[in-house]
Amino acid sequence: MKLVYLDNAATTKPRQEVVEAMLPFLGERYGNPSSIYSMARDAKAALDEARGKVAKALCARPEEIIFTGSGTEADNMAIKGVAYANSRRGKHIITSAIEHHAVLDSVKRLEKRGFQATFLPVDSCGMVDPKDVEAAITDDTVLISIMHANNEVGTIQPIETIAHIAKNHGVLFHTDAVQTTGHIPIDVKQLGVDLLSLSGHKFKGPKGVGALWVKKGVKVERYIDGGGQEGNKRAGTENVAGIVGLAVALELSVGELEQETARLTQLRDYLIKGVRERIPHVRLNGHPTKRLPGNTSFCFEFIEGESLLLSLDKVGICGSSGSACTSGSLEPSHVLLAMGLPHEIAHGSLRLSLGHETTPQDIDYVLEMLPGIVSRLRAMSPFGEEVSSDSACPCAQEEHSLVKSHQF
Amino acid sequence: MKLVYLDNAATTKPRQEVVEAMLPFLGERYGNPSSIYSMARDAKAALDEARGKVAKALCARPEEIIFTGSGTEADNMAIKGVAYANSRRGKHIITSAIEHHAVLDSVKRLEKRGFQATFLPVDSCGMVDPKDVEAAITDDTVLISIMHANNEVGTIQPIETIAHIAKNHGVLFHTDAVQTTGHIPIDVKQLGVDLLSLSGHKFKGPKGVGALWVKKGVKVERYIDGGGQEGNKRAGTENVAGIVGLAVALELSVGELEQETARLTQLRDYLIKGVRERIPHVRLNGHPTKRLPGNTSFCFEFIEGESLLLSLDKVGICGSSGSACTSGSLEPSHVLLAMGLPHEIAHGSLRLSLGHETTPQDIDYVLEMLPGIVSRLRAMSPFGEEVSSDSACPCAQEEHSLVKSHQF
Amino acid sequence: MYTDKVMDHFTNPRNVGEIQDADGVGLVGNPICGDVMKITIKVEGGRIKDAKFKTFGCGAAIAVSSMVTELVLGKTLEEALEISNKAVADALGGLPPKKMHCSNLGADALRKAIEDYLEKQGKGLPESRPDSEEGGEDS
Amino acid sequence: MYTDKVMDHFTNPRNVGEIQDADGVGLVGNPICGDVMKITIKVEGGRIKDAKFKTFGCGAAIAVSSMVTELVLGKTLEEALEISNKAVADALGGLPPKKMHCSNLGADALRKAIEDYLEKQGKGLPESRPDSEEGGEDS
Ligand SMILES: Cc1ncc(COP(=O)(O)O)c(C=O)c1O
Ligand SMILES: Cc1ncc(COP(=O)(O)O)c(C=O)c1O
Q1: pTM value?
Q2: Which residue, among A34, A36, A44, A47, would best test binding to D if mutated, counting the most D CBs under 10 Å from its CB?
Q3: What ipTM does the predicted assembly reach?
Q4: What is the Cα–Cα distance from C11 to B401, expressed in whole angstroms?
C-alpha cells in the first residue's frame, strides 16, 4: 500500500547521510569523550565538530550550545535552570497558553515550588500579542518563554518583538524553537532571545537528542547533575552518535532551507486549498500566512479526530490530531481550546505536516481520499443530519447552537 | 598499532547485534511511538518489547521500567524524584562518599533545596558498612542511595543487607547499578531495593540511553516534564533506536553472564598478579574478591595518573585514572580519598577495566609494556630517588613520611 | 492499541444509520467530551427486531456502537437490558484502559432506547438492571 | 587536548635528570596537588650552561619542565629570569585552560633554582622580575 507520511511535525525520518554519519560512533569510534586516550579524543573532536555545526546554523558560538537528551529536556533545563539560577531577581514567569507541554509542565512544576506564572492567551489564529507580554511583566518577572512556532497549528510568533520587550524590561527570554529549527531561518542574535531549544528528530535527525542554546553570560543552573560533561552544564555520558547525527541533519536542513521553504509552502497551500474546495464545514486552524511551511491543521466539524486518523491510516496516510504527545489522551488540544474553538470542534482536528519527502502526488492522494473518509464518518455522526451542504465555514456561534439543539 | 581497550567501565563498544537491531529505527521504522497510525504503533511495539526484555533481565515487571537519556538522568530522577514525591515523610537522605557524581551531585543539589544529607564513609577496600547505614537513619530519613558496585575500584557493596535495613526502617532504597547491570546477576526482588538505575553503554549498548526501575507503588515525581511518554513518568520523544539497542545489549549480556564472569575474573586476577609481580610500589585499590569481574584499579606510587595514561596511549593501551568523568579534572578521585589514600598516592591511580573483547594476549601486552612505562616515569620523578627497590606494598604512613621529607 | 475485532467493527461498522419510525431512541454522551451515541430500535413481540446507531466519537466509540447493535438483535428486552458496557468491551476483545470510561457507552445508549420505548408504551422498566457503572472497573 | 609540541616534549622530554653538583636547585609544587618540579642548574660566566628537571605530574607538567630547561640553555641569568610561565606555555603551542594554573610551574622552578644559586653566591636578585602570576590569565 502507498504510504503517505504527513506527520513530520511529530517526527521525521533520519536522512541517509545522518545515519551514515552516526554509524562510526556506534562502531569503531565508540570512545567516551571524557577519556584521554586517542580513541576518546576522537569522539571528543566529533562532539566539538557537531557543536560547531549547530552553532553555525544558529549564528551562535560553539561554547553556547549544550546538548541534551531531547527537546523536552532542553525546555525543562531552560525554564527551571533559569528560574533557579536567577530566583533572586524574581519568581514570576510568563509563558503562553499554547506552549508545548514540555514548557507548560515545567512552568507548572515551578508553580509548585514557589514561583508564580502567567499563561498568556492567544487570538483565534494562535498568535500571542506582544502587548499582553509587556502588560504581564512585573518587577518580579525573571523569565518569559514563548515558542517560536506552535507545533499543532503552525503559527509563527512575533519573537523579535517580544524579545525586544523582554530586553527593555531586563527579563530573560527563552524560545522553544523545536518546530522551527531547520525549517525557518534562525539567527539568535537577530531574534534577540537569551535561550533557545531544539530537537534533532524534527529536522531529519535522530530521536533522543536535543540542544539548548544559552547566550554567553546568561546564568542557567545545571539540570542533570553529575559529571563535568558539556562544560559542566549537563551531566551524563554524551550520546555521541546522536549528537553527530543531529548536527549533520541540521547542517543539511539549513543548507536547503530556502528551496524547501518555497517548495513546502506551495504544497501546503495547495493542500489547504484542495481540502477547502472539496470538503464542507472545515476550518483551517492557525494563521493563514504566518505559519510553518509544512504545517496544515484543520477541524472537520461533526466528526472526531481519532476516527479520522484511523480511517486515514487504513489508506496509508499518517497524520495526527493535536500533538503526538497528547494523541493518547481524550482531552482535545489545549492549543485549539486556547484559540477559542469549542470542545466539540476541537475534537475534530487533523494536522497534516509536510516534510522533505512529501511530493505533489502525496497531496493529490490525500485530496482524493480525504473527502470520502470525512463524508463516511459524517454519515455515521448523529450531528450529520442537521448539516446543510453549505460549504461556507460556519463560525463558532453556529456550532454552539447546533450542539445546544441536542441539549447536552 | 595494536589497540588494547581496557576502559570498559567508562564505555563499551556496541555489539554488532545491537547496531543491527537499532538501524531499522533510524530508517524505515521511524514512527513516533505516541502517534496512532500503524507505523507509529510499530515503534510503540518495539518499545514495549524492549521494556519487556529489560524487565526480564532484572526480574521485574515491564511497567516498572522507565527509559531515560542516560544512567546519570536515571540517578537524578531516582534521587530528586523520590525526595520530592515523599518529602512529607522526611527530608534526610543517606548516601555514601564514593557514589558516582550523578548521585553525589543530585544529593548536593537537594541540600541546597532544604534537604539534609549524610555521606557515609567507606573502609580501605571501599566498602560501606551496613551498620553505619543503620546508625545514620533518623525519623526524617526518606531515602538511602548506595551504589551496587563502584565504578573506579570495583567494590561490590552489601546491597541486600542494606536494603533489609532500609525496609525495616520504612526508608526507600535506591541503588545505582550502572556498573553491575549486565555484569553481575541482578534480581531486584532478591536485592530488595526500591529503585535501580542502569545505563546502556556500560554493557555494549549505545550511549545516551538508560533506565530507572521503580518498584510498583513507589512514588517518584516526574523529573523531565512534558508529554505523557513512559507512562507519564518521563517526558520527551523516546529514543526508540537507543532503547531497542539497550534492551538487545542487556539481553545478550545477561545471556552470557555466567561464562563472561568466569572468563573475566580469571583474566582480571591474572592481570593483578602480573602487575604486582612485575612492578614495585604498587597497590591494588578496592576489595580483593568482592569486586567487579572486569575491574582492576592500581596506584603506582611516585608517578601521576595522567602521564601514565598518556604513555599507555602511546603504545595503544586505553585505560583511565579515576573515572572518565573526572579525568579532565585535577582533583584526585574522591573515591580513593574516601578510602583513605593520601592525595599524592591517589594521583597515581590507573583503572584498567576488562570487557567482552579482552583477550589473554591483551593482558600479556599490558604486562609487557606497563613495567617499562612505570619505570621511565619514576625515573623522571623527583620522588624516585628515595625509593628503595623493596617491592613490598608501602603503607599510607610510609608514604606520608616520604612526602613530608620534602617539606611540602 | 486496538484489537483486530475493534478495528473490524470500526472499519466495517454494522447497523449504521437511524430507524426513521423507531420505537425507541437512546442518546448518550457529550460532544464536549468527544463521544455521542444515538441508538434507535424497532421492537416486535418483546424482542429487538432492528437496531441502528449513529456515533460521533473515536474508534472505540464507533466499534462499541456497532458491537452493541449486533449483540442486541433478536434479544428480548430483558436480555437486552442485561448487556453491560463491560460485556460489549469483552465482545470486542477488550479496549484500552483509557477508553473504558469515556467511549464505552453503547450499552447505556441501548438502555436509554429501551427505556424510551417502554416509556412510550407507558410501561416501567423490568426489574433486573445491570450494573451500568461496571464498564469502567478495570481501567 | 594537548598540542603536538606538548606531546613531543612529554614523549621525548629533554634534559631529564638531576645535576649532581648543581649550582642551583629549584623545587616547586605540591604532591597533594599532583605536580612537583625540581630543576637543577649549572651556571658558568653568568650564563646557564646546563639545566635538568625531575617532575612528578601530568603530561603538561612534564612537557613544561622539558621546555623550560630547553629554553633556558645558554641564557644569561637576567634573560632566564624573564622567562614567564606563559612564555613556556606559548612555546609549547598553548596548554588547556585547566592546566595553565596548576601544571605550568616550569618558570617558577627555574626562578627558584636561580634564586638558590644567587643566594649561595651571596648575591641578591637582579632588578627585573617577570610577572609570575601571568601564566593563568587566559583560563
Ligand atoms: C556508577 C555509575 N553511575 C552513573 C554513571 C552515569 O551513567 P551515564 O554515563 O549513562 O550518564 C556511571 C558512568 O558514567 C557510573 O559508572
Ligand atoms: C514545540 C515543541 N517543543 C518541544 C517538543 C519536545 O521535543 P522532543 O520530542 O525532542 O522531546 C516538541 C515535540 O515533541 C515540540 O513540537
Answers
A1: 0.92
A2: A36
A3: 0.91
A4: 85
